[in-house]
Design a protein that fits this description.
1 helix, three-stranded antiparallel sheet, 60 residues
């Protein structure tokens, strides 16, 4: 099974998303959105941006 995005309402009433790996572990979380539709667009943006994105190491 592939990973999945979950969209949910947080305690403050805002919508958020989390990306879960196939083993159920959360690997990424999104910011707070005012609407469910905006959170869904956030998921779509991550999907588009991640496809083919390089891994770049930076120094702290």
């Amino acid at each position: 099974m592939a990973g999945k995005f979950e969209v949910y309402k947080d305690r403050g009433g805002k919508y958020r998303f989390r990306l879960k790996a196939s083993n159920g572990q959360v690997v990424a979380t999104g910011e707070a959105y005012e609407t469910r539709a905006a959170a869904l667009k956030g998921c779509e943006s991550v999907q588009r941006a991640a496809e083919g994105a390089p891994i770049v190491e930076t120094e702290s």
